[in-house]
Amino acid sequence: MVLGLRLYSALYPAWGPVCLLPRSFASCSGNPASCCTMPQLGLLHGRAWAVLFGQLRRPPGAVCIRAVHSHGQVVEAALATQMKPHQEKSNFIIKTPKGTRDLSPQQMVVREKILDMVVSCFKRHGAKGLDTPAFELKEILTEKYGEDSGLIYDLKDQGGELLSLRYDLTVPFARYLAMNKVKKMKRYHVGKVWRRESPTVVQGRYREFCQCDFDIAGQFDPMIPDAECLKIMCEILSGLQLGDFLIKMSWKDVRHEMVAKKGLAAEVADRIGDYVQCHGGVSLVKQMFQDPRLSQNKQALEGLGDLKLLFEYLTLFGIVEKISFDLSLARGLDYYTGVIYEAVLLQTPAHAEEEPLNVGSVAAGGRYDGLVGMFDPKGHKVPCVGLSIGVERIFSIVEQRMKTFGEKIRTTETQVFVATPQNNFLQERLKLIAELWDAGIKSELMYKNNPKLLTQLHYCENMGIPLVVIIGEQELKEGVIKLRSVASREEVAITRENLVAEIQKRLSES
Amino acid sequence: MVLGLRLYSALYPAWGPVCLLPRSFASCSGNPASCCTMPQLGLLHGRAWAVLFGQLRRPPGAVCIRAVHSHGQVVEAALATQMKPHQEKSNFIIKTPKGTRDLSPQQMVVREKILDMVVSCFKRHGAKGLDTPAFELKEILTEKYGEDSGLIYDLKDQGGELLSLRYDLTVPFARYLAMNKVKKMKRYHVGKVWRRESPTVVQGRYREFCQCDFDIAGQFDPMIPDAECLKIMCEILSGLQLGDFLIKMSWKDVRHEMVAKKGLAAEVADRIGDYVQCHGGVSLVKQMFQDPRLSQNKQALEGLGDLKLLFEYLTLFGIVEKISFDLSLARGLDYYTGVIYEAVLLQTPAHAEEEPLNVGSVAAGGRYDGLVGMFDPKGHKVPCVGLSIGVERIFSIVEQRMKTFGEKIRTTETQVFVATPQNNFLQERLKLIAELWDAGIKSELMYKNNPKLLTQLHYCENMGIPLVVIIGEQELKEGVIKLRSVASREEVAITRENLVAEIQKRLSES
Predict the structure, then answer these.
(1) Could you give the maximum distance between any two Cα atoms of chain A, in Å?
(2) Is residue B208 within 8 angstroms of chain A, CB to CB?
(3) B130 to chain A: which residues are within 8 Å by CB?
(4) ipTM greater than 0.90, yes or no?
């Protein structure tokens, strides 16, 4: 450790603004969130550091321990201990795998809030839950992801089946439908997926990340489920208050649908293309129907039919102004068959004092009518449309915002702390806290025989615990407990029998 | 498909009681939970079937499609399509990997209820959330699991780091503590772990399964965190109403602690062992202190100290009668350093009409004071104690019970269905449902232009949706909506402006 820190110090002048790195490591209190005030800078330098460090020559057999701490996750502690002469050196780095990270308690709170909000929207739209294994038979994933197939994580062949980690939640859903002969289903799925991408962690891209998917499978009247998917995207992005957003639909795929499948002449399709370039919503459709070259062409009218329907439904849902066409967007994955869409956050920050953020796409989806058929022995198709919320990027934005506004996050939900001002009161505290636990009250105490009262009260203030119950000699004698409000510091004596009821009353009021 | 079914028919007489298999497959409605009335039988035969089927010779180039459907998960649809002469045959089975399964919406509801209950207990005890990646550097897991190391899933070497899927949540937690220099933490973690065990799926053992862990890391006064872990186990197992249970502590490990670490004479330890065989709780400790061979031996008294403390605390927590020693239990994993414990469900069924279930261990835990030090460059130790709830087994028990009692599970939370008795009312329905969604009301409609009213009402009854709002010509003209209670079939007309408020009132009352 000493050598490691010395090396840092020696290198320090060369790093310029990196000074935060070794310092934050040296002074790290063990709370990962508290020592990452500059995550982006820190991470960039963390990587550069590792590269540079890797080039340093170490004297053979020397004890060399190094550690890099940045973003609360990428601590690296390389360890080359001096072993017995003929024994192999144990030399490994304590870190999470490349492109992955732990989520600290602070991050977990943010994540849970976002996921709760997303899932409650999915449930509001009548979706059922579903879970699939983290890995699938390798063949299930084959020929589904085009060029991206190289990014699939395979499991080692340890005898038995060849397996791969799932790359998204869509292919497992299609496999589930085909395997169980399910012809109709509205489901949501929240889970991790894995992709061997070059991790540029600063932008919120990871090799392991969480997806929140909502899909509607089944043969229905046109464009109703599609419109609902777009509505859900809008509800979630509005609900999360991430600032302004726009949902871009791929014109290329719609045009392909019109020309290749509905037989529209290419030049008429391009005439429509001229309109969609105008980024209009419902006005766009109106304009097209006023154009004699489109409205007097039977095929054009037919080709425009689905588009018209979709925009009608989006208007009824009150979200049409959020949708526009994008001429550059095109399908990314092999399995999409119709329109695809992508939600992007707009540059304008939600609050004037915030720095503008360019986070790009935060949700995407589309129609994939052929995927289930690829798994069905007879090729029976089940049309599907769905969406995926890119929650990792949303986490980054919300985290960033909380930092900007200095919001303090409670990492526990503890309601009551059981304290004592006296020594040798552990037994009474244990009896009391068991009563509270058994009454469903979230409670903590110090795991010490004789803690100091001030330490106990400070802990409550730091952790945001609202109530303290205090038991001591005097209280025991009088058959009461002192109930203290941490915020107001007011204390009242309450009889033991009334304590639980009084706490519950106070908690329900706050 | 036709050939596959014919093969089934031909083999049918040989199968005896397997008749359920091809029949349930043939008549499967697509709902996996509805067609598995005999999951154990079904699975056994599913496997036997696959073995036998694998031995059947197929004429070269013949179209052969087979499918087995059992337990809603192990559908196998092997597919050998006739391809162009020189093209390789695509031949794979559509299934989940060996030892894994999907969770259907019904199962997800059960799982969510159980996990909510477990997590709320962890939060009641002041635990913070934490998440770690699904895989770790291979070296992190090395030499932690003894003989079981062969069960670790490795990832394929695709260039870069050597990775393994996590085997439990304890080692990643210890790695997190060491990596971030955290000296003190009370955390819970709910997540999947993976083990290449021989899956005997019927007993609720899988290669992928969910663990719910609670751990207390840090240097504290003796036995307080240990007692809290045992309290948590009791709260969870009581709360889930799984019937009677007992927590067994390993005597071997306690004896080792006394003899090897506290220097107690082996024969005195065995004298204590005689007592612990009696399965007593607090009375056991009392008896030991009345035995002059123990109470007059200074070393014995010291050796008994921790044990005495623990039982005192368990008494204060009101759970001492749930704890007993087990002479056969011994540490399973390399990292345990002190007492280990295991919760077993007792044979007695909770209800007289239930079949007794032998599910064995449903929770386990113990002390592992050395694990964090294995990851620390200087070997600094962080004492830890924790527990893990084996939720998969608990899922099986609860599922089994629900089947026994014929409990119907709602798989959606939809509160209101938007219906119409008339054709061409899609637009009005869409406008109406968007109002409900925007008011936070969980609502659904049919994705059809002209659904039949009866179909819509039947759907509500089947899905357990409590309210229907009906809009038609008449209602539109009068500016009202009909609100119907599905249970009572009563309908009242409500003005459009008051609809949301009225629905919210009804929902809050029910």
Answers:
(1) 95
(2) yes
(3) 102-105, 108
(4) no
Tell me which residue in B183, B312, B427 faces A316 most closely, judged by beta carbons: B427
Work out the minimum CA distance from A10 to partner chain B, whole angstroms. 21
**CA nearest to A198 within chain B:** B160
Which residue, among A24, A78, A23, has the nearest Cα to A50 in the 3D structure? A78
Bridge partners (DSSP) of residue B78 are B66, B93
Greatest extent of chain B over all pairs of C-alpha atoms, in Å: 95
Return the exposure string of B206-244: e unless at least 16 CB atoms fall within 10 Å of the residue's CB, then b: bbbbbbbbbbbbbebeebbbbbbbbbbbbbbbeebebbe
- Give the A:B interface size as CB pairs under 8 Å: 288
Q: Sign of dihedral through CA atoms A43, A44, A45, A47? A: positive
Mutate which: A94, A228, A232, vs B, most B CBs within 10 A: A94
pLDDT tens digits for chain B (510 residues)? 233 333 333 333 333 232 222 323 333 333 433 333 322 222 323 333 233 223 333 333 333 333 333 333 333 333 333 333 333 334 568 999 999 999 999 999 999 999 999 999 999 999 999 999 999 999 999 988 888 889 999 999 998 899 999 999 999 999 999 999 999 999 999 999 999 987 655 455 799 999 999 999 999 999 999 999 999 999 999 999 888 898 998 887 788 878 887 788 888 888 888 777 665 556 677 777 788 888 888 877 777 788 889 989 999 999 988 888 776 666 556 677 777 899 988 866 667 676 555 567 899 999 999 999 999 988 899 999 999 999 998 998 898 888 888 888 999 999 999 999 999 999 999 999 999 999 999 999 999 999 999 999 999 999 999 999 999 999 999 999 999 999 999 999 999 999 999 999 999 998
Taking the C-alpha atoms of residue B444 and residue B419, their distance in angstroms, rounded to an integer, is: 9
What is the C-alpha separation between A114 and A401, in angstroms, rounded? 14
Record the pTM.
0.81
CA distances from A6 to A3, A42, A107 (A): 5, 19, 32
Of B95, B101, B156, the CB nearest to A155: B156
- The answer to whether B507 faces chain A, any CB pair under 8 Å, is no
